[in-house]
Structure formats: structure tokens, C-alpha cells
């Protein structure tokens, strides 16, 4: 009988004072790969993301997505007893993650420098809005605000309406960089014995993703236009009507433009028309170019238009809804769905995007607030009487 492959991060313990999206997203990636993630929550309700909505069998959609396979420990970190429990717990941990409000970690001696003086082998990871130093270090930063400050909102949406991206992209980018930074720090500790602190800010994470428009603006003199579903510097690129719906298509090079003119538009002359011959020409004359494509596609059923585009090897797709995504044949055909238990019952969950050959990620339940408090305390050496005392003092 084949033995199951051990998860890559088995044996790693992560303690996280986390809330909302960025830190929980980072630590869930670690939990998926086998790390023990102990989530510190407030005794009076826990992570506030638990109450964003009640749509997933009575649970929050954000919380269910971000917190599977974790253990929940309630601690009042304003009490001496709660802080003592945390300190004992940190002595057993490999990684500490926090996304507390600006300055809060330092006030509790949980900043990276203080922690590493007390626990030299611990890898601290701080996630903040604008960094732990600098003129904006004391500012609160939520996803929408960072999308605005980074310039992303000025690029997103129709020309008349700057728009927030429909997902928490600043939080997610910071979570991913925290995850990769923690993995790098774990590797560094394993190979050199040095535990290095990790610092990630939402603003700088999203700033990295702004590289293309930043270069275009700095060296081109103007920023890319806000063009909705289209592309500011490529044409034709975007959504086009059909007789029964909408398709998406993207022409990336001159071969594709010639093929589009010949096989979809039925007009060879357009391929060498000075208005459209080069991509920069098509961008300059976007409205005319788009109108020519739309005039043809709106006379065709969606399936026929997609079939032509497939035949001439031009990338295309449908304008799918979230419901369409949930039933997408690619996910079903690649066996990407799994099941996770919640307090209200089982729900579906997707496998992590990075597939490791021979490794099945962990899909343990989403914890209730404080569900593992007694077990964790017992593992730290607290007996039943001591745990009762902590509860009586409302420290847990």
C-alpha cells in the first residue's frame, strides 16, 4: 500500500494575530501545505471578518475562504494572563504573523526586533498598509484605499468612472508576498540557521503589480487610458457583442490581425489599411477598429464566432458570470474541487493553484471562535485548573 506523502510544511508552527484578508490569506496557504496555524482571536467575537456576511451556511464568505485548516485560540492580549499565554506559545513557534493596526505590535513588544531578541529562531512577518517606517507608517490602509493610492483605480473601469477591482486585490497581493517571503525565510533558516524577519505592505505589494503602467507613464509621458474591459495599449482587445451574447477576443500580433480581417471580418484590405496596420495604429483608431469588429460579431451566434476564432488561433472567451465560473469545465475536468467542513455544513473549495506532484493539500475544517483554546492551552502545559482560572479572568 502506498503511503501518503507528508505535506511539505508538516512540523512548522505558525502563530498569527490576524484579521480580515491579507494575513489570513498568507497563513491559509501555509496551512494548506501542512503547517500548524494557530489563529489568535479576540474572546468577544474573534476576527471581525467572521461577521462580514452570513452567506455560506451561516458563515462569512470571506472567513470560510481564508481560514480552513487553522486552529482558533481566543486570547485577551490586553490582559497579563493572555500575554503570558501568547509568550509561551511563541516559544514553540517557527513563524509569527501579524497585521495589527499601525503601532499596535510595537506597543505590545511584538515588533520583529523585540521578538527576535526573545526568540532568536522565530521568523516574524509584519503586514501593514504602508510599511513600519516612513511618513505613512501610522495610516490605516484598507483595500479600496490602497487601490486608490497606488493608481490602480485610475486605470480600472470605464472612462467616466474610476473603479475598484471587484476583489480585494491589494490584500491578496500582500498575502501572496507574505506567503512567499515566509517560505524564503524558512528556507534561509534551514540552510544558514539565521531567522530573518519579513515585512510586507499592501501599498508596496500592489505597487509591484503596477509596474507596466508605471513605466508607460514615466517614460511615455502620459498614463494609460481607462478603457473598461479593453486594453489601454492593445487593440482590438475586449468585449464584443454577438447575436445572442458577448465574446471576448484579443489580437496580439500582426499575423492574428491579418487572420481576423480575412477569416472573421471577410475584408483582406483592412489588414493593410494605414489606420489599422500596426497595433499602435489600431490603438490610435480604436473606436473605428472596434466598430468594424462589432459590426461583424453582432451578426453571429456566440458559438459560431468562437469557432472561427478558435480555427484561426486567436485567443477568445466568454463573458462569464460567477455562476459560470463555479461550473467551469476546466475546473471539473481537472478535478480541482474539494470539500471543507464548516459549522453549518460542508462547502466546496478549490485546490491551491500551485500543484506539487504527489502532494494533496490539506482541507481541514474552518474553526469556530476559540474552538481549540483548551487543547492548545493543555499542549502548552496548562492543567484544567489553570485553564479554568484563565476563563474566569476572561483572559481566553
Description of the molecule:
The chain is of the alpha/beta class and 396 residues long. It has two domains: 13-210 and 336-392, Rossmann fold (3-Layer(aba) Sandwich); 237-319, formyl-coa transferase, domain 3 (2-Layer Sandwich). It has 17 helices and eleven strands. It has helices spanning 22-32, 61-66, 80-90, 104-107, 112-118, 143-149, 169-192, 202-209, 211-220, 254-264, 279-284, 286-297, 302-311, 322-326, 329-333, 373-379, 384-392; strands at residues 13-17, 36-41, 70-74, 95-98, 123-128, 198-201, 237-242, 245-250, 315-318, 337-342, 345-350. The strands form three sheets. It has a six-stranded parallel β-sheet with strand order 3-2-1-4-5-6, with helices on both faces. Helix 7 crosses helix 8. The chain is elongated. The mean pLDDT is 95.
**CATH architecture group name of the largest domain:** 3-Layer(aba) Sandwich
Query: Strand arrangement, largest sheet?
Result: 3-2-1-4-5-6
Q: How many DSSP-defined strands?
A: 11
The main pleated sheet reads as: 6 strands, parallel
At the fold tier of CATH, the topology name of the largest domain is Rossmann fold
Cα gyration radius (Å): 26 Å
Which key terms come to mind for this protein?
396 residues; alpha/beta; 6-stranded parallel sheet; 3-stranded antiparallel sheet; 17 helices
Helices, strands, pairings?
Layout: E1 13-17, H1 22-32, E2 36-41, H2 61-66, E3 70-74, H3 80-90, E4 95-98, H4 104-107, H5 112-118, E5 123-128, H6 143-149, H7 169-192, E6 198-201, H8 202-209, H9 211-220, E7 237-242, E8 245-250, H10 254-264, H11 279-284, H12 286-297, H13 302-311, E9 315-318, H14 322-326, H15 329-333, E10 337-342, E11 345-350, H16 373-379, H17 384-392
Parallel strand pairs: 1-2, 1-4, 2-3, 4-5, 5-6
Antiparallel strand pairs: 7-8, 8-9, 10-11
Helix pairs in contact: 1-7, 7-8
Amino acid at each position: 500500500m502506498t503511503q501518503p506523502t507528508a505535506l511539505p510544511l508538516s512540523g512548522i508552527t505558525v502563530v498569527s494575530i490576524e484579521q480580515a484578508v491579507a494575513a489570513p490569506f498568507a497563513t491559509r496557504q501555509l496551512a494548506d501545505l501542512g503547517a500548524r496555524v494557530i489563529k489568535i482571536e479576540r474572546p468577544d467575537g474573534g476576527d471581525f471578518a467572521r461577521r462580514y456576511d452570513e452567506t455560506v451556511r451561516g458563515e462569512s464568505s470571506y472567513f470560510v475562504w481564508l481560514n480552513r485548516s487553522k486552529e482558533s485560540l481566543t486570547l485577551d492580549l490586553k490582559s497579563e494572563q493572555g500575554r503570558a499565554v501568547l509568550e509561551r506559545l511563541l516559544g514553540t513557534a517557527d513563524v509569527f504573523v501579524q497585521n495589527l493596526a499601525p503601532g499596535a505590535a510595537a506597543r505590545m513588544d511584538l515588533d520583529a526586533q523585540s521578538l527576535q531578541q526573545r526568540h532568536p529562531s522565530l521568523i516574524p512577518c509584519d503586514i501593514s498598509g504602508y510599511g513600519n517606517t516612513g511618513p505613512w507608517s501610522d495610516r490605516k490602509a484598507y483595500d479600496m484605499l490602497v487601490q486608490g493610492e497606488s493608481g490602480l483605480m485610475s486605470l480600472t473601469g470605464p472612462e467616466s468612472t474610476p473603479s475598484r477591482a471587484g476583489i480585494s486585490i491589494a490584500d491578496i497581493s500582500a498575502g501572496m508576498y507574505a506567503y512567499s517571503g515566509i517560505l524564503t525565510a524558512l528556507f534561509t533558516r534551514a540552510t544558514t540557521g539565521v531567522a530573518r524577519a519579513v515585512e510586507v505592505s499592501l501599498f508596496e505589494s500592489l505597487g509591484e503589480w503596477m509596474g507596466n503602467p508605471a513605466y508607460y507613464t514615466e517614460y511615455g509621458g502620459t498614463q494609460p487610458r481607462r478603457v473598461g474591459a479593453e486594453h489601454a495599449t492593445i487593440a482590438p482587445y475586449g468585449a464584443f457583442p454577438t447575436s445572442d451574447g458577448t465574446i471576448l477576443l484579443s489580437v496580439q500580433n500582426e499575423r492574428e490581425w491579418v487572420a481576423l480581417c480575412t477569416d472573421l471580418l471577410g475584408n483582406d484590405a483592412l489588414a493593410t489599411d494605414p489606420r489599422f496596420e500596426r497595433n499602435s495604429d489600431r490603438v490610435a483608431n480604436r473606436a473605428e477598429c472596434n466598430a468594424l469588429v462589432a459590426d461583424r460579431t453582432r451578426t453571429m451566434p456566440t458559438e459560431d464566432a468562437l469557432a472561427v476564432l478558435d480555427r484561426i488561433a486567436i485567443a477568445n472567451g466568454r463573458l462569464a458570470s460567477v455562476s459560470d465560473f463555479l461550473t467551469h469545465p476546466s475546473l471539473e475536468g481537472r478535478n480541482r474541487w474539494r470539500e471543507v467542513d464548516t459549522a453549518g455544513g460542508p462547502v466546496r473549495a478549490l485546490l491551491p493553484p500551485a500543484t506539487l506532484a504527489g502532494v494533496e493539500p490539506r482541507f481541514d475544517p474552518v474553526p469556530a471562535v476559540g474552538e481549540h483554546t483548551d487543547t492548545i492551552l493543555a499542549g502548552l502545559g496548562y492543567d484544567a485548573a489553570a485553564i479554568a482560572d484563565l476563563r474566569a479572568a476572561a483572559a481566553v
